[in-house]
Amino acid sequence: MMVRFSMRKCLFSLLFLVGLVNCAFAQEFRFTTTVSSNPVALDEPFQIQFMIENGVNVTSFNPPDFKDFDVLQGPSQSMGQSIMNGRRSEYIALIYVIQAKRVGNFTIPGAQARVNGNVVKSNPVLIEVRKGAGASQQQAPQQPSAGGYAPRGGRDESVDGVLRKGENINEKLRKNIFVKVEVDKTNLYEGDQLTATYKLYTRLPTNSSVTKVPAFKGFSAKDIELPNPPQASEEMVNGQLFKVFTIRKTLLFPLQSGTLELEPVEVDNQVRLVKVVQNKRRARDPFEDFFNDPAFRDPFFDDFFNRPDVEYEDVPYKTQCNPVKITVKPLPAEGRPASFNGAVGRFNMTAEVNKNKLSTDEALTLKVTISGQGNVNLLNTPKVDVTSGFEAYDPKVSDNIEKNSNPLSGSRTFEFVLMPTEAGEHVIPPVEFSYFDPSANAYKTIKSAAFPINITQGKKVKSEKQDYSVGRNELVGIETGIMPWVKKHTWFVTSIWFYVLLLIPVLVYAGAVFYKRRQDYNTTNASVLKHRYANKVALKRLELAARYLKEGKDKAFYEETSRAVWGYLSHKLKIPFADLSKQLIQEKLAARSINGSNTAELFDLIDNCEVALYAPGQDNRRMQGTYEKAVSIITNLEDALKN
Amino acid sequence: MFKSIFLAAGILLMACFTPALADDVNPQVRFDEANALYRQSKFTEAATIYQQLIDAGYTSRHLYLNAGNAWYKAGKTGQAVYSYEKALQLSPEDAAIKHNLSVANQKVNGYVGDLPLVFFQRWWLQLQHLHTSNGWAVGAVVFIWILMASLLINTQIPGLRNKYLQWGSYLFGVLFLVYLLMAIDTYNIANNHNNGIVMAGSIKVKAAPDDTSKELFELHEGMKVKLVDTTSEYCKVELNDGKNGWVSCAAIKRL
Is A338 on the interface with B (CB under 8 A)? Predict the structure, then answer.
């Protein structure tokens, strides 16, 4: 709790005060003098307070003579009222901040005031002034956490909130506020439970908020709910009493092996420190402490609050704990059952089916409950080996974890819905569940009994009703009736017959073509030879004709000449002998573009020969001309036909 | 003359097709028995009989379809998908098989789905199923005979030579090539065992063909995979979405 001070500027007029207090009920009247500390050090300023309680009609106030002291500040006046047990009380206080001039014991006489017409005097105070700063430290350790200072709403007020002269703020904060993480073990198996507690230790009044929470990388975390508002406990650290607040308490299950680090938590503190001000007379605005509870008559309070010149300072201070290393061992590989899927702790398993006899229209529920202590929240679905004949759906998982249990305990239930698809006697094999017991350092396996299920054939009415998309998910029925029972058919493509049948026509065609080619070749070859030797043959014939010419056998001469010419033409133009005719020759020659004079001479010669054959009696000279003509024509034709 | 050759060819073909009917039990009886078991919801027993018939060498889309249905109902998704895929190989356009296969694939964990075919692939596939492989082969034989005959007539007998016959021979030549190609292609497809179905409940796909290598992903029962490479123990599989890795060959049944 921070006491709420209503700050006022000092120097109210006394007259005004008189008017105000007039209306108060008459209560027990007191006029007291208190000092904030006694004994005091020589250079230590302290407060002296003169308080008039329930004084009616205060008309004058005379402070005593501070002859052995310097008045550093004051008088400052404060007033207030409170209602306690239905009785109202008022007070007026005048406060001076003074400092001793010398060492020794001094008596400050009481102040004088006129109240309700009577002169009253407050009690004198004996002040012991010591040398040096040592005296002030005397008080520090013995300040207990007094009642009335209980922390409220996460705000923690402690007892050592006074910053004395010469104290280093950081040093003081560091000593008096810190965060600590406590783990119950630092070496454990994967999946085993670890409890981490983050605590804030403080001896100072502070308003703290957690700014950075650890992410617990590599762990599965489950927070334990903490009371709200936080409850403080007390703990002795190094002989000093600390208030301890638990910031976070988490059950951690390492998900991987190796060295994992618990990240630090970071706490932002606003520490309210009471600072004793050293300087002389500060500006005219020293805050007045307005105690609205006059019941604080305890000398401690006076001592505590009525310091000569104090100032509250909110010091921000960020603190974080050291990271903690956790060594996580992998679960032993040997002896690991096949059904193990990550459960670590101590568990029990039960499995049951809701019926043993059903039709294919109904559904069967297999309920597997795993309960115990350990990573219940991380339990995987135990493998239910549903045999043929059932359609298994993903299980419905429900948890029943005990709240704030440490170690984590509870149960997880898996409900498998099995739809029988086949009639007959079926057996659901036993459900097997294995876990690792870290305390026994061994794997343990629990096995349920097998479940024999008798399934009768249903009417399938239900499934059809339920299935809203009939035809989409329903199979097209089986085919019945007489089938052509053919064994794996042979491949015609790979059989030899395929290739034989393909090759036969090709071979036949190839044979035919070859035969024709050969024939063609033969014929063309003969004509080629004839063509090539046509000239020679013709000249040979003409030679014969020349002999006849010499011998004067004119008929034979003409015959031979005519034969030579015709033969030549037949060979050269590749015309069978029987087909020869003038017209054909003309066409052929024209086709080979032999010019007109050659043709005309040729036909002249042929005509001559024919005439001479049928009309003999030609003279020798003419025969000579014919011969020469025949030679020249053949020569000419040879030239012409060559190209 | 050509007629008689065709006749001879036909007879030869018949000889090739004649089934060797020498089974101890009449398959029809067994088949009816299995169908009856199926109707009584005794799917495992029915499936066993269908499977026996298949193993005996009978192939028919009906048999595969029924076996697929029985396996599906008995909860053996892998076997069911395998049977449907087999049936689909025999008649790829059958709507019933396609439907049942898609139903079975719904149960396959991680089913990716086949890539849709491009239109010409579809046409090719449809064309392919105009005839059976043997039909294409017979066609190829027939067309080469006609082609050769027309060529002979066209080239060797000058009196019958004409333009139509020439064009006809071109046509027959093209037809022959198409039929031959189809016969070979259908044979290849039917004997292509590069696809497989995962039969084990779930198998780990590894990065390399050995036990110690890194596990890449998991394959579940009924998944259709493409076999890319094989060693004695391991097969490299590829999924439709391009993921690949090595699995034990024992877990995969080749189509």
Answer: no
